[in-house]
Each structure stands twice: as C-alpha cells, then as structure tokens.
Amino acid sequence: MARRDSRQPRRAVTVGVCPCGTGLPYGDCCGRLHSGEAQAPTAEALMRSRYAAFAVGDPDYLLHSWHSSTRPARLRLDPGQRWTGLEVVATEQGGLFDSTGTVQFRAHYRDGTGAGSMTERSRFVREDGRWVYLDVDRP
C-alpha cells in the first residue's frame, strides 16, 4: 500500500479520543487511516474516518478517500465549523467481502450561528481494492 505523507492534520485534535465516536485514541483509530498507515476495512470505518477528517481539518484525506469519478479538484473546509458528534443511523452492506455499501449518519456541528446537525445517506464502493466515498444516495 502506498503510504501518504506523515504530516500532522491541519487542525490539532484537542482531546486524545478520536472524533469518530469509537472511544479509541485518535492515533489508534482514524489517525492511522489519515496518515496512510492503514486502510478502512469497511464502508462504515471509512465514513467514520471521513467525519474525523472534517473534525481535525484534513482535506487531503477527504480527497484521497473520494472516488475518482466524483472527487472535486479542490476542497476547502470551513474553519468556523466545528464537528461535535457523530451518530451512525444505519448501514447496508459495506462489509469485509462487499464491493458496495451505504451508511446513513447524523453529524453534529457548531458554527457562527449555533449548533446544528446534518443527516446523510452516503454510498461507498471499492476502487482499486480500497473503500472510497462515491456520493450521497438521493432517493
């Protein structure tokens, strides 16, 4: 597996617990994926790592984990938005032996206008053997 550079995320994690909600230390959880030391084994793990990348301010990881057919050329994160919690609502497929998966989640944030949340049903696929985010499932 090609290793990403070992740079630190742009926004320092102020607590040792990973923002993705597993309760594990960041360095033992999504930090390993963000640094390129490991790959997400499931679609849900990738979704959690992408949420954590938003929380720690790592747009490079977000682009790296985006499907090549839907990935934007650039991604600018809002520095005034702080992600404060993640709830996984449902998962369909996306396991170790699947090639597609869907994860519905609710992400909580704070910004200049106060607290809010967003709910999304994201689709994931394997590209070159690794899980990547494809798009939002719009019924």
UniProtKB/TrEMBL annotation:
Matches recorded under InterPro entries: NTF2-like_dom_sf, SEC_C_motif, YchJ-like, YchJ-like_M
Pfam families for this protein: SEC-C, YchJ_M-like
Q: Give the YchJ-like middle NTF2-like domain ranges.
A: 42-135
In which domain of life is the source organism classified? Answer: Bacteria
Q: Which family does it belong to?
A: Belongs to the UPF0225 family.
Recorded protein name is: UPF0225 protein ADL17_16265
